[in-house]
Give the backbone structure.
Amino acid sequence: MNNLFQDANRQQISGRRRNDLIWRILFLGATMFGIVALSALIITIITDGIARLNPDLFTNYPSRRASASGMKSAIVGSLYMLCLMAPISFVLGVGAAIYLEEYAPKNRFTRLIQLNISTLAGVPSIVYGILGLAIFVRTFGLERSLLSGALTMTLLVLPIIIVASQEAIRAVPRARRDASFALGATKWQTVSRSVLPSAISAIMTGVILALSRAIGETAPLIIIGAATYVAFLPESLFDTFTVMPIQIYNWIARPQEAFQDLAASGIIVLMIMLVIMNVAAIMLRNKYQKNI
Amino acid sequence: MSTTTAAPQVKETTKAVDFKTIIDIKDMDLYYGTYHALKKVNLTIPEKAVTAFIGPSGCGKSTLLRTLNRMNDMIPNTRIEGLVDIAGTDIYSNEVDVETLRKKVGMVFQQANPFPKSIYDNVAYGPRLHGTTNKAQLDEIVEQSLKQAALWNEVKDFLKRSAFSLSGGQQQRLCIARALAVNPEILLMDEATSALDPISTLKIEELTQELKSKYTIVMVTHNMHQAARISDQTVFFLNGEVVEFDQTDKLFSNPSDKRTEDYITGRFG
Ligand SMILES: Nc1ncnc2c1ncn2[C@@H]1O[C@H](COP(=O)(O)OP(=O)(O)O)[C@@H](O)[C@H]1O
Ligand SMILES: [Mg+2]
């Protein structure tokens, strides 16, 4: 009995163990690099920004004096953007995904569209700014309005939402469609009563992650001319507006240190908002996994 | 399965009753693209009886079953020729709408495939599709269907629970209840017990004997003994052809084709 464990080649085994340890350390190092860099970033921002993280930040408009400045118009602008973008991009994105997965004939034209959408998901955001400027601001004459901004951002997130929704729809087992068809359901009944309920959490996860990307975007909005200094709240879709990342960018660009600290507190607010959206996405995903 | 040479035991109760024909297939060919999957099928299926399809795997049993509720329509490049007549109607003619056909010809699949919904909502899915929204009416349908599927007593106190909380055998009976809830005439079962344990299998076999008083049952089975135990008519398939069909006791005791005899005595397959 004890011979069984004794005549293994000990030298070879200890060599393998050492190898194992080296790889382990390398991978740990790779992980730590990211964690340390990220922690350093967060710590600097918090130490700089915590002092200015007070109610004034949420209730004051931007001002020439850092001590009186707040980001009320930017926070409200971002929230308005979100409320406009979310329904438009949800309807268009999920609609397109349903068409492509369930209705489109599987031919070369569909494949071409598919390829384009996947490519668009990786196009730099500034390109969408140029597109939005040409279409919404100039052609439709919407000027540098909240609506122009929201529509431009919708363009930006659409490919991401379409791809994510398609994956969610494709992940619904065939058997679940067959069960519905075999009971005499039409295509739309099957999609709406069987496929979408199974896919909706994963779709929502994709939508939220896409929207949270848009909330942090600056470049396309600067191109279409979102204002950097807005001392009022937009009252209609056609008013000028600003959003949090633009306000932050504007403060960082100032030489005074007081504005730098203000920017840091703005970043904290933006980050908290993004964390909330991501947590919502994760919660939805967990719910979805329970349903599979 | 072992290759015993003893022919399966046929149940004693199969009587040579004259059944009325409900399904009549004439010179039917089916192609998947260029692949000729069913060849010149001629077959009649009796009403309110159990018909079993047997034969080695890949010989076209599921394919023929799916032509009966036109689930093959969804497979691209499928072409079908010849006549499939159910209760006097050519089901491939233009007048037939496929939703009504599938309401009348229900199907139970090899893998139980409940929806990720409650037990109640699973059974109510079909009636709701076809326009029943009245709560009392749905309650009644759900109860009746679950009773017919011999599942009511096990689930009546947890109708709101997820269908996934049921065991595999219970899920399969739930799928039977779901199919019965739209009040079909014919029930197709494609190896509905092959993924189940022996006790669950037995339950479903017993169920078919209850159900055949009201429904025509057509079942695919890879298990000859099951066909012998519970079917009234057996159809033997080989390479896309219907080699022979007959009353089950006759087909197993006195097959007219040599290939049938070889198969049921375990010489191949
Ligand atoms: N969707 C399909 N496309 C192409 N060929 C298929 C398809 N489904 C089945 N076949 C082929 O048709 C033949 C019969 O299949 P099937 O009816 O599933 O056999 P069985 O149920 O008797 O095992 C097999 O050769 C199979 O490969
Ligand atoms: Mg099969």
About this structure: Residues 135-148 of chain B form the longest helix (14 residues). Residues 6 and 265 of chain B are 6 Å apart (CA to CA). The longest strand of chain B covers residues 21-32. The beta strands of chain B are 21-32, 35-46, 50-54, 78-86, 89-90, 105-108, 186-190, 216-220, 233-238, 241-247.
